[in-house]
Specification:
heterotrimer; A alpha+beta (266); B alpha+beta (265); C alpha+beta (208); A: 266 residues; alpha+beta; Glutamine Phosphoribosylpyrophosphate, subunit 1, domain 1; 27% helix; C: 5-stranded antiparallel β-sheet; 12 strands; 31% strand
Chain lengths: 266, 265, 208
C-alpha cells in the first residue's frame, strides 16, 4: 500500500500502535482572500479613507467594482479588507447596530464609540474571526480628524494614518515617510507640520494607489476616496476636483464626499 | 490525577514516534469527541455541474449552462437543467453540487410561494433573490456546512437589469460578465472582451453569438462539459429559458495534431 | 523558516542621470536575533561596478570570493575591464550552474557601462537566486524588505535624478523600507557611482 509506505519509513508498524489510516477527509475551508488594499489618513479637521475596487480570488479578477469603503454616518467611514463575504456581513452588522443606536438616542453614534463597538463586535468572534482588517476614519466629537485601525480580532488604536490589505507592505513605509516625515530632518530652526493640508493628502493617497497598482497584481481597476470634513471645515480644497460627489445626509455640520478615480486594469 | 503521561493529550503517531514502546492503543482515550463520528459536517460535491456564463446586453441578461451533471469524471446525467426561474423576474444558474442546487430550488420555490400568498403588493426581484441567497450561503458556510454551489443570479425588473454571483463561501459580487468554475478561466476573458463597455448597445443576436462561441470553447477545453446547453434571457418581457441547443463542433483538426504522446511525427 | 530570511538584509539599486546608486542595510541576524550592525553586503567589482548580495550570509562571503576570482580571470584573459552587462551575465550563469542546489542570494548589480563614443551609460540589474536576470530602467530591489522597497521606490523615484538627488531618493527609500522590516536595518550604506567618482556614505538608522 503506497500510502502506508510513505507514513511508515521505518518498516512495520508497532502492533499496538494506532496508524492514521482513516478515510481521507478534505476539510472545508470557510475563508478566502479577496485582495485589494485600503488606506486612511487623518488631518486636522478632515479624514480621508480610500480603497481600490478590485475583487479577486487567486489569479482571477471577480469584478472590477466591489466597494470596500462604506459611509456609516456623516462623521464615520469604514474601510474593510480581507475576506469579502465576512467584510460585507460585518459592515451590515455595524450599520444595524448604528441604526439601533440612532433609534435609542436620536443621534448618530460618535466616532470613538463606533471604534469601541467595532472592537467588541470583532472580539465577540474571537474563536471564529471575521477575517477582515478594518480601518475607521472620520471626525471626532472635538472636531479633529481621526483614524482607527483594527486587526481581525479587535485590537485597535487611534492613529494619523494606516494602510492595510494586500499592498500594506508597499504603502505603509511610504506613508511613514510622507505623513510622519520619518527619516527626514527638518531644516535648522523649522519643524515638520503636525497635520498636512487636504490637497497634499489627496495627492499622497492617489500616488500610494498608483504605486501599489504598478507592483501588486491584486490592486487596481478603480479607486474610491472618501473625504469627511469637520464642522465648518473649508471645502475649498475639494472644489473643481474631477468626479467628486457629496453624500452628506444630516445637517449636523460634518460633510462626506466621494472621489472616484480609475486605476490600471492589468 | 492521571499518572499516565500518554493520556495527557500528547499526540502519538508512529510517523514521528516510530520506536515508541509504550502500548498506547491499549489505554483509554479520555478526550474523545463522542459526536465526532455522528455528525456529518464537511462534505464534498458528488454530482456536479460545471460552468455557468452570463452577460449583460441591451435588453437585459443572457445566461447559459450546459445540461451535464457529472459523477466524478463520469458523464452521469445528460439532461439536467441548471438554469432555474425564480418568480417572474429572475433566473438562477448553478454550478457545483446538483443535489444542493435542487435543495436551493425547493427553498426558493417555498419563498416565492410564501411571498405570493401574502399578497402585499410586493414581488421578489433579482436584487432580493440575490440578497436572500447570499445570506443563505453565508449562513451555511458559517456553520461549516456549505451548500456546495457557485450561483449566478440574473434578472430584470423595473427597467433595470441585474447580474450577480454568490458562492459556497458567501462571497458575492456584481459585474457585467460573470463566468463560474472553469468558465472563469476560459470564457471570462472572451466575455469581457466582447461585452465590457458595450452593455447598452449589444443586441440579443450579438449576445447569443458571444455566449454560443464561449460555450463552444468551453466544450472543447472543459472535460466536464457537454455540447448541449440552454440559454436564458431575462428582459422587460420576462424570463425565458430555451430548449436544449446542440453545438456544431468539428474535431477534424485533431487529425493534424502532431507531437503529443507516442505520435511524435 | 525560510533560508532567505535566516540572516536578513536588503539591497536596492537606482538609475539616475549619468549615475547609478546602490545601497544596503548593515544588519546581520540569526533569525530575529541581531548579531552585527556592520555587515557589508555590497562589494566593488571594478571601479564602475558594484555588486549587492543579500541573502544567506555564508553565501555572501562565498559568492563575493567566487565573483572576485571570475572577474580576475576575465580581466587576465580578455586584458580589459569587465562591463556591467557582461558581469550581469557572469552572475546569472554562475548562479544557474547551481540550479538544483542554489546559493541563497539574490544579487543586485549597479554600474556604468562604457558607450562606443567613450561616454558612460547607467546600468542596473538584479537576478533571483538561480540567476533569472531582470534589467530594469528605474530601480531593482532584493532581500527581506523587497516588497517595502518596491512600494516606497514606486512613490519616490523619478527619472534623470542628479547624483545628490539620487542619493537622497535611494537613502529615503531604503531607510523607510527597512524601518518596517524586522530582518533589515541597523544602519545603511549608500554608493553613488558617477563617471569620475564614487560617493560612499554610511547612514545612521534606527537600532530597534
Amino acid at each position: 500500500m503506497p500510502a502506508m509506505l510513505s507514513t511508515q519509513p521505518h518498516g512495520l508498524p508497532h502492533p499496538h500502535m494506532q496508524t492514521e489510516q482513516g478515510p481521507q477527509q478534505r476539510q472545508f475551508n470557510p475563508y478566502t482572500e479577496n485582495g485589494g488594499t485600503i488606506l486612511a489618513i487623518a488631518g486636522k479637521d478632515f479624514s480621508v479613507i480610500a480603497g481600490d475596487t478590485r475583487q479577486s480570488e487567486g489569479y482571477s479578477i471577480q469584478t472590477r467594482y466591489a466597494p470596500k469603503v462604506f459611509r456609516l454616518t456623516d462623521r464615520a467611514v469604514l474601510a474593510v479588507n480581507g475576506f469579502a463575504a465576512d467584510g460585507n456581513m460585518f459592515v451590515k452588522k455595524v450599520r444595524q447596530r448604528l441604526e439601533w443606536y440612532r433609534h435609542a438616542h436620536a443621534k448618530d453614534m460618535p466616532l470613538r464609540a463606533i471604534a469601541r463597538l467595532i472592537q467588541t463586535m470583532l472580539y465577540a468572534r474571537r474563536f471564529f474571526p471575521y477575517y477582515v482588517y478594518n480601518i475607521l476614519g472620520g471626525i471626532e466629537e472635538d472636531g479633529s480628524g481621526a483614524v482607527y485601525s483594527f486587526d481581525p480580532v479587535g485590537s485597535y488604536e487611534r492613529e494619523a494614518c494606516r494602510a492595510a490589505g494586500a499592498a500594506q507592505s508597499l504603502v505603509q513605509p511610504f506613508l511613514d515617510n510622507q505623513i510622519y516625515f520619518k527619516n527626514q530632518t527638518p531644516a535648522p530652526g523649522t519643524s515638520h507640520p503636525t497635520h498636512l493640508p487636504l490637497p497634499t493628502v489627496l495627492k499622497l493617497v492617489i500616488d500610494s494607489f498608483t504605486g501599489a497598482t504598478e507592483r501588486h497584481i491584486e490592486v487596481g481597476d478603480g479607486l474610491e476616496i472618501y473625504v469627511v470634513l469637520a464642522k465648518g471645515a473649508s471645502t475649498q480644497a475639494l472644489e473643481g476636483i474631477r468626479g467628486i460627489q457629496e453624500t452628506t445626509v444630516t445637517n449636523d455640520g460634518e460633510r462626506v464626499f466621494i472621489i472616484q478615480r480609475e486605476l490600471k486594469k492589468d | 490525577m492521571d499518572h499516565f503521561p500518554t493520556n495527557w493529550g500528547r499526540p502519538r503517531n508512529d510517523a514521528f514516534d516510530a520506536y515508541g514502546t509504550y502500548p498506547i492503543a491499549q489505554h483509554p482515550r479520555n478526550a474523545v469527541d463522542v459526536f465526532a463520528d455522528g455528525v456529518q459536517r464537511t462534505q464534498q460535491p458528488i454530482v456536479t455541474g460545471t460552468s455557468v456564463l452570463a452577460i449583460k446586453y441591451k435588453d437585459g441578461i443572457m445566461m447559459a449552462a450546459d445540461n451535464l451533471a457529472s459523477y466524478g469524471s463520469l458523464a452521469r446525467f445528460k439532461d439536467v437543467q441548471r438554469l432555474h426561474p425564480v418568480g417572474d423576474y429572475t433566473v438562477i444558474g448553478a454550478g457545483g453540487d446538483m443535489s444542493d442546487f435542487q435543495y436551493i430550488q425547493q427553498m426558493l420555490e417555498e419563498l416565492v410561494t410564501e411571498e405570493f400568498a401574502s399578497q402585499d403588493g410586493h414581488t421578489l426581484g433579482p436584487v432580493e433573490i440575490h440578497e436572500y441567497m447570499s445570506h443563505v450561503m453565508y449562513a451555511r458556510r458559517s456553520k461549516i456546512n456549505p451548500l456546495w454551489n457557485s450561483l449566478v443570479i440574473g434578472g430584470f425588473k423595473n427597467g433595470k437589469s441585474f447580474l450577480s454571483y454568490v458562492d459556497l463561501l458567501g462571497t458575492t459580487y456584481t459585474a457585467s460578465t460573470i463566468a463560474t468554475g472553469y468558465g472563469s478561466m476560459i470564457a471570462q476573458p472572451l466575455l469581457r472582451k466582447a461585452v465590457e463597455g458595450n452593455e447598452t448597445t449589444l443586441t440579443e443576436e450579438e449576445a447569443l453569438k458571444i455566449i454560443e462561441s464561449s460555450m463552444r470553447v468551453l466544450f472543447y477545453r472543459d472535460a466536464r462539459s457537454i455540447n448541449k446547453f440552454q440559454v436564458a434571457t431575462i428582459t422587460e418581457k420576462g424570463a425565458t429559458i430555451s430548449e436544449s441547443r446542440h453545438l456544431e463542433t468539428s474535431w477534424s483538426f485533431a487529425e493534424g495534431i502532431r507531437g503529443y504522446g507516442s505520435q511524435t511525427q | 523558516m525560510s533560508i532567505m530570511e535566516y540572516n536578513g538584509g536588503s539591497v536596492i539599486a537606482m538609475v539616475g542621470k549619468e549615475c547609478v546608486a546602490i545601497a544596503s542595510d548593515l544588519r546581520l541576524g540569526n533569525q530575529a536575533l541581531g548579531i552585527s550592525s556592520n555587515f557589508q553586503k555590497i562589494f566593488p567589482v571594478t571601479d564602475r561596478i558594484y555588486l549587492g548580495l543579500p541573502g544567506l550570509a555564508t553565501d555572501v562571503t562565498t559568492l563575493q570570493e567566487l565573483f572576485r576570482f571570475r572577474v580576475n580571470m576575465y580581466t587576465i584573459k580578455e586584458e580589459r575591464e569587465i562591463q556591467p552587462e557582461t558581469f550581469a551575465h557572469l552572475v546569472s550563469s554562475t548562479l544557474y550552474e547551481r540550479r538544483f542546489g542554489p546559493y541563497f542570494i539574490e544579487p543586485v548589480i549597479a554600474g556604468l557601462s562604457q558607450t562606443p563614443s567613450g561616454g558612460f551609460k547607467p546600468f542596473i540589474a538584479a537576478t533571483d537566486l538561480i540567476g533569472c536576470l531582470n534589467f530594469a530602467k528605474d530601480f531593482v530591489v532584493a532581500g527581506t524588505a523587497s516588497s517595502k522597497l518596491f512600494g516606497v521606490a514606486e512613490g519616490l523615484w523619478e527619472p534623470d535624478l542628479e547624483p545628490e538627488d539620487l542619493f537622497e531618493t535611494i537613502s529615503q527609500t531604503l531607510m523607510n523600507a527597512v524601518d518596517r522590516d524586522a530582518y533589515s536595518g541597523w544602519g545603511c550604506v549608500v554608493h553613488v557611482i558617477t563617471k569620475d567618482k564614487i560617493i560612499t556614505r554610511t547612514l545612521k538608522g534606527r537600532m530597534d
